[in-house]
Task: structure prediction
Amino acid sequence: MFGWFSQVFALTAFSVQTIWQRKGSTAAALFGIAGVVAVLVGVLSIAEGFRRAMSASGMPDTALILRSGADTEMMSGLSRETTRIIADTEGIARDGDGALASAELFVIINLPKRSTGTDANVPLRGIEPTAFGVRSDVELVKGRPFEWGKNEVIVGVGAEREFRGLELGGSIPVGRERWNVVGIFSANGGIGESEIWTDAGVLQPAYRRGSSFQAVYAKLENPDAFQTFKDRLTTDPRVNVKVVRQTEYYQAQSTAVTQLITGLGTLIAGLMGIGAVFGALNTMYSAVSSRTREIATLRALGFGGGAIVFSVLGEALVIALVGGALGAGAAYLAFDGFRTATMNWQSFSQVAFAFDVTPALLLRGIFYAALIGLVGGLFPAIRAARMPIASALRES
Amino acid sequence: MKFLGLVWSNLKRKKVRTLLTLLSIFIAFILFGYLAAIRQALSQGVDVAGADRLVVRHKVSIIQPLPASYEADIEQIPGVAEAIHVNWFGGIYQDPKNFFPQFPVEPEEYLAMYPEFLLPEDQKQAWIKNRIGAVAGRATAERFGWKIGDKIPIQNSTWTRDAGQSTWDFDLVGIYDGAEQGTDTTQFLFQFDYFDEARAFGRGSVGWYVVRVEDPEEAPSVAAAIDETFQNSPAETKAETEGAFVQGFADQVGNIGAIIQAILGAVFFTILLVAGNTMAQSVRERTGELAVLKAVGFTDTQVLRLVLAEAVTVAAIGGFLGLAIAWFMISAGDPTGGLLPIFFFPPEDLVIGAVLVVGLGVATGLLPALQARRLRIADALRRL
Result:
């Protein structure tokens, strides 16, 4: 048994050392596999980054209350009375000023993108003072908070980066007025960073919403209190609402975009993977055929067929892994942290996010490369082992 | 042509390699097909936008309603042939994932504004007569297996009916087709009158206007005139050509589309490069054989043609097969399960693909072919 392993090892080391003699076709296969892995990792990192921006937004102990039947804040509507009843419901955490529940408006405003100058739907959120207590991850990084009752806004760092006029000291046109940007905030990489925030009381008349709101964000006493809180509200005859966990809400909101990107990404990588298998097959077949006499000599010397198979497979695997690592590295350098914004169709508004090349993605890419190498090496390996020794020795 | 047999036996010389090269090219052109279809899908039909149509929306954002009275005002503006109003309904059919656009409209006006929506005359009449009648585009009807005569219930929590009900029932009385491949056949259209009378609030306001101008050349100045008319009113407008409006939406998807396309493009050319290299290599390996051919009386040009024909044959078989299969796969539907309403292989890209196939054959064959032509018999034979 040990002898067999040493045979495999010796042969594999020998094949790998002689790769340089077949550098042309080896490089073709290597770069082919590197390309597949780079693309797979790159495209999926878009979906991963988008999902992260959405999931970083949710806290398990925060509940979102919408009108029953509404799936997004945009489609929802709650009267002032309803929002008061919600805020008075048992189960919501409290601080010195009262219940940590913020009734909010969610609308969009058209602003030009910095990159293209074309209009985009930027989310504009009207909040109540409690909003900052509900969202403990919000932090002002520049400027000052807006003054309640004034035409002032604060802007998420993602929105500031993507849209014109949102820098500190800038202003946005709302109707015939211009609202000044007085502060920039971060929200732990979450979706809040794509938004513009202002006083709900100022936003209501500007968008003709009377005294109505669209959603209530409530911080619960603890994450486990959700179910009882939800049951309490949904059975309250005075209101007709639906209660969702913030985490689940944002997860549902991200499905369309992530599905689109992963759908396209998987298809592309799948097709490319097949292409790369062909490339690897080609390389390994020519490697085997250029070594016909050599392999036959080894067999004549007493090396077993199995050892030959594994040595060819080993060579293919080495090429694939090197290619995969190159591709994964290239994808990491090119895509990780790349910032952009896209339309989230479910909320009809823009989400700013950064591509995210996660370790899991890198591993997946390298695993994929190994698979390509093994499939691409298997058939040539079998052919090498099956060569009739006598005639192969005679071949030129 | 009489040397076709020779080309064929050259290709059979290393069957596995030829087959693998062929398959790589095949895959590359399937990718090319998807690249074209995705680009088309992300541009969301900019190509087929009506040049003589303007979209007029609220200046602050499209979710803000405009007064219904603007329609008459817009029609007074010189250069305007017709104005119609559209609302965004945003209801849900069975599941929120089943997204398709629904618009309450005036049937006759709307169909006149969009002549590319082809609805049979009897279905049109049936729609006009039926207050709760609706028509759906072919794509949406097929997606949910609707037939004419079906009852379609749509839930809407924003636009509730007077009685506070959130379910709107519609009779499907017609299915429209698109005049062109890029025409949006996912819309669900129903009578504005039914909507306006039944909705619990917002009567007298509309979502946006679509305006037909008399002369497409004048579209920008008409758009400016519309915006000027409503300047300093409580609801200022933004008018732009339909093409710009659709482009604006496509731009909202941002550079993600561009990145996916750039990646696909890079992949396509890499595969071609690798395949081309293999093809060129297989010719180089046969230098000796080519010299023999010349020695037995083949002319330089004949050898050149022979080598070129071999490369073009491989490219053509792989490439055209790839384009054909891509066409079939793309026609079968988009890979994301209904998220891209417009998904097809644009004919002009099919032509570009075909040109690329031939170009690939020539490009990979030309260099070895020229070398083969220049080959001096004595030198080449001595190398053996």
Summary: The longest strand of chain B covers residues 167-178. Residues 48-252 of chain B form one domain. Residues 291 and 379 of chain B are 9 Å apart (CA to CA).
